[in-house]
């Protein structure tokens, strides 16, 4: 049976990249799949987080999920630290995965920077916890942006190695020839990698020091319009064909954003705007962005005014997530050979 899982870190500003690369797809999958959407607070503390701010951000990501259209009653929304199966399974995976695999992860290299020895041990083991997030539910499909592709390949490697290392025990306990599924990444749509508005070669990110590099989900209409007006572009008109976007990263990015917000292909956007200058395209893009994002930001502010209600959503989701993960974790313990209470 297909099951969708994905996670978002409660660190810094949720932006248009998170929305178009991930959250829009979370919403779309609800009609066809059972979905579990997690605010990964344990991943967040792999780099230092101010405690009060972390709590606020956990609620803000939850508010964004709900404001964007995720239904926390039909599906499951919760924060990772409330379901201990994540930490327990991550330990087993820490013992299955190899240090070399972790050292090769580009996100680790980027985040650890030059001083690798001084990065937290959690930052190195980050992908192992991510594999545990997914496999604690035996999730089959994981919607993410392009930047998470390498982590999902590692998740498959961990599942495969667990299935191989424990093959005899897995069969012996009646689980057939594989305990964990090999999860499929879902990296779909025209916006799998949204770039910075200041530099078309850098991805839009929560941690970019320039607020003009990204559109935050909490930005108001004026901020959204101003950031698009100031976005970096080249001097040429928009091309008529997608081929013509090659070598023009800023133009490509803005056309991709328009396409994703409008639910069109990039070619359909160029059919409409090809031959026009950015002075004509940018106002149209700003209007569309305000129209799509404005209501989400407003709804987030409304939800954030009642933190008790958000905490209730998370607690309810955690209980239901735990009920799915618990028997799977028990199975892992049996397969590994641990003794457990009934
Ligand atoms: P995070 O919190 O950095 O980002 C959340 C989601 O947003 C996507 N994303 C983007 N998509 C397009 N363009 C961008 N510029 C952009 N920036 C971010 C990310 O790909 C992601 O889908 N490791 C994950 C969180 C995680 C997770 C998981 C995801 C933890 N456990 C299990 C899936 C399954 C992360 O740091 O995402």
Automatic annotation (TrEMBL):
EC number per UniProt: 6.1.1.2
Gene Ontology BP terms: tryptophanyl-tRNA aminoacylation
Superkingdom, taxonomy of origin: Bacteria
GO cellular component, one term: cytosol
Swiss-Prot/TrEMBL keywords: Aminoacyl-tRNA synthetase, ATP-binding, Cytoplasm, Ligase, Nucleotide-binding, Protein biosynthesis
Subunit organization: Homodimer.
UniProt protein name: Tryptophan--tRNA ligase
Taxonomic source organism: Kaistia soli DSM 19436
